[in-house]
Amino acid sequence: MQSFIQILLRGLLAGLVGGLLAGSFAYTVGEPWLDRAIAVEEAQAAAAPPEPDGHSHEEALVSRSGQKAGLFLATALFGVAMGGLLATAFALLRRRPRAPGGVRSALGLAAAGLVAVVLVPALKYPPNPPGVGDPGTVTARTVSWLLLVVLGLLAGWAAVAAHRALRTAGEAPRAAAAAGAFLATVGAAYAVLPTFQEVPGGFPATLLWSFRLATLGTQFALWVGVGLVFAVLVERLGRSAAAPTATPVAVGA
Amino acid sequence: MSGTTATTQAAAVPARVFWTALAVVGALLLLTYLVAFDNGAVSQSGMLLHELMHDGRHLLGVPCH
Ligand SMILES: [Zn+2]
After folding, report:
1. CA separation for the pair A143, B36 (Å, rounded)
2. Which has the least CB within 10 A, A41, A97, A128, B39?
3. Where do the structural domains in chain A lie, given as residue ranges?
């Protein structure tokens, strides 16, 4: 129990660091594109006839500078949540016999998070700036995106299971089986889930592309930050826990 | 501590750790929901939380509007 709490606290701290790193990246690289997208969105709204049920942007609850500060709050809280989930998975998996070493599984889990939560959904549903996307499909898009996150995690599990199943085979066939299991799961998910093509015809292509790259960079900074900080912290925790028992082991050997 | 006992203890997750972990996962998923998906329905904050963290949602790549 104590060790679970120790690991969890380290995960939350690593998540905070990764989240603030992601916030700094998003603020520097992403915000200029976000501002431009909002300008395009406002120009579109001004040109279009007013909709009676559409929500108006005039009565903003939070100013643009408030939203830029809120960016750091959002990435920090999101990082804390991801760091905590990563640490919980790490603590539960660590109890299994034949689990890989601390640093390796900490980095492996962060890489799995990046692939499942970011890359797998982003290739099917690339992130959109304000001004892109039909408000009427936002629920369908969110549900499909969440399903793809779950299926991305499942694909990662399938790859590990395939790799383990071929324990007697060589490393090349095992890697091929793992890649095959991953790609088959993701391919099936891409084929089954609906596609949304909602970029307005006149939306600047460079702006869309740069914005999407900035979102990938933000998530990359978050998961790399979380993974590295968490790996360092659990490695130090493992060393301090192992230190008192090191002598009897040496005598026994 | 014998090797067998150590392996059995390591393989099974004690009930207290399991329930704590489950509660932690629930709380963290709620936090994720509030940051990434809330429209005021759960937080009862109207659109305040949504708008405050709106830039973060878009730059984290979460489907928004
Ligand atoms: Zn939005």
Report:
1. 13
2. A97
3. 1-42+71-132+207-241, 133-198
Amino acid sitting at position B49: L
Please state, in angstroms and rounded to a whole number, the distance separating the CA atoms of residues A253 and A251.
5
Q: Measured in angstroms, how far is the CA atom of residue A111 from the centroid of ligand 1?
A: 27
Chain B CB contacts of A218 under 8 Å are: 59-61
**Is B53 in contact with A61 (Cβ distance < 8 A)?**
no
CA of B49 to the centre of ligand 1 (A): 12
Q: What is the pTM of this model?
A: 0.87
User: Which residues have a Cβ under 8 Å from the Cβ of A196 and sit 6 or more positions away?
Assistant: A125, A133, A134, A137, A140, A141, A144
* First and final C-alpha spacing in chain A: 30
Q: Do A74 and B46 touch (CB under 8 A)?
A: no
ipTM value, please give it: 0.85
Chain A residues touching B12 at Cβ < 8 A: 95
Alpha-carbon gap: B52 to the closest alpha carbon of chain A (Å): 5
Please list the alpha-helical segments (H only) found in B1-65: 3-11, 15-36, 48-52, 54-60
Cα(B57) to ligand 1 centroid in Å equals: 7
Nearest one of A175, A170, A147 to A160, comparing CA atoms: A175
